[in-house]
TrEMBL record:
Membrane-spanning intervals of the chain: none
Annotated stretches, region: Disordered: 103-125
Name of the protein this chain belongs to: Tetratricopeptide repeat protein
Keyword Cytoplasm: no
Key words of the record: Repeat, TPR repeat
Gene source species: Didymodactylos carnosus
Tagged with keyword Repeat: yes
Amino acid sequence: MRNYNEALKYYQTILDIKLKYQPVNDPDIASTYENMAGVYHSQKQHDKMFEMYDKAIEILKLVLPSSYPNIEKAEYDRDVLQDYVKYIPTLYDVSAALPDDFTGVSSGADPQLDSSPNKLPDESG
């Protein structure tokens, strides 16, 4: 069983220790922020997820060249997740794509068909 709250508690403890003993712009701290962002993503706490990604990216940009793969990956992950969060409600809201008068029942039902599974349509038709 996944216990996201417990994971966040441990990540926060690790982060507190790192912030106390390491420079605030240490890439290792950025890594912890990225890990926390992953947990928040799993919990669908998207605002907190983006906050963590932003902190990680800010640190990486301070200490690494702008073309460094970790920066590009963190920015890419954040952008992809931002698009995901933006469009996910429409993926599950099928009703938004249906006409207002849609009832789910075909209006062109064949009157000769009976709902009984053993009865065949009338052949006199």
